Amino acid sequence: MKQSHISIFIVLFLFLGCETVVDITIPVENPQLVINSTLIDDETIKVNLTESHHILKSGKYQGVIGATVDIYENDQLLTTLPDSSGGNYISAQFKAQKGKKYTVEVAKAGYNTARADVVLPFDTARVLNVQTDTITFDDFGYTATYARFKVELDDDPKTDNYYAISIYRGGYVERYDWTVNPPEYIDSVYSYTKVYIQTEDPNFEEYQSFGEEILFNDELFNGSSYQINLLTQTSWYNPDHTPDDSFTYFISLANTSESYYLYGLSSKLQYWTSDNPFAQPVTVYNNIENGFGVFGAYNTAVYKVE
User: What is the assigned CATH class of domain 126-256?
Assistant: First the structure.
């Protein structure tokens, strides 16, 4: 019996001591153009251009300069964007217009010519009503007070709609000179801040229910009105007033292109699962032919909360 135990031990030692080294050759592919551009109604057309990285390459993405960036409007050449430095190409004259189809086509020596299409949506996003109140939660042993915005929107039944909703807070912010002790007051400036929001809507997946912008579509309410409740934590120095008396709140409801919606949603899901070793890999949406990135668009309606 003792001899048997020794034999088993020797076999296990030899088995565990064996090591096979496998060399994996990762093919080096030529970089491709990465186009990132979001068209906004009546705003200057801008395109950011970089190149893709090899999986083992680290460091910042560098802007691609010296490319030819053509913009077509309804299939007619509108303009060639000038190189504004750092991989940014900005029109000095033309602005995007709602309801029109745009095409971006980028050519650069050493790269495949990349292109994409998008239609800038019409004004179909409409806020019917906003009501506000407060709600409290037990947040890890602390009582947290939130402002709740009950936003009722009207959906156009004639088209599939994709939405991005956010809340801006406007108010005076005091500026101080922090180079002296004690700090000296300079003045007050009026500014707008996009606030962090979350929704308690059970129709939303957890990863898409929070952030500075919440994305959703009209699959569940096409052609009818719909109420989405948004929460934002109140100012710590004034928890008894919701919304805070010293601020003005604005609801921003954007009607987006499908590409903007899918890119934003897949980016959120990738971030949400990035630290989970058991999650399935998430591929970020890409609508660039012969390249990577997104060519999106949106049209925004802003509602002031009275």
Answer: mainly beta
- In this chain, the answer to whether the domains covering 33-119 and 126-256 adopt an identical fold is yes
Reference 155, options 220, 218, 227; nearest CA is 218
Task: Identify residue 70 by its one-letter amino acid code.
Answer: D
Query: Taken in order 258, 259, 264, 270, is the CA torsion positive or negative?
Result: positive
Residue ranges per structural domain of the chain? 33-119, 126-256
Q: Which are the contacts of 116, defined by CB distance < 8 A and separation ≥ 6?
A: 35, 103, 104, 259, 287, 288, 289, 293, 294, 295
Q: Are 233 and 145 in contact (CB under 8 A)?
A: yes
The per-residue DSSP string of 144-172 comes to: EEEEEEEEEEE--TTS--EEEEEEEEEEE
Question: Could you tell me where the beta strands, DSSP code E, fall in the chain?
Answer: 33-40, 44-51, 68-73, 76-81, 88-95, 101-107, 114-119, 126-139, 142-154, 162-177, 184-194, 197-199, 210-211, 214-217, 225-233, 248-256, 292-304
Question: Which DSSP state fits 83?
Answer: B
Q: What CATH code is assigned to 33-119?
A: 2.60.40
Bridge partner residues of 48 (DSSP): 36, 88
Handedness of CA 166, 172, 178, 182 (dihedral sign): negative
Looking at residue 52, its amino acid is S
pLDDT digits (tens, 9 = 90+) for 257-284: 999 999 999 999 999 888 888 888 889 9
Q: Angle at CA 33, nearest 5°, toward 32 and 34?
A: 115
CB 191 within 8 A of CB 171: yes
Per-residue model confidence as pLDDT tens digits over 13-64? 555 555 666 655 555 568 899 999 999 999 999 999 999 976 656 667 789 9
Distances in whole angstroms, Cα of residue 91 to Cα of each of 64, 80, 88, 97, 294: 17, 8, 10, 14, 18
Q: Is the preceding peptide bond at 243 cis, omega within 30 degrees of 0?
A: yes
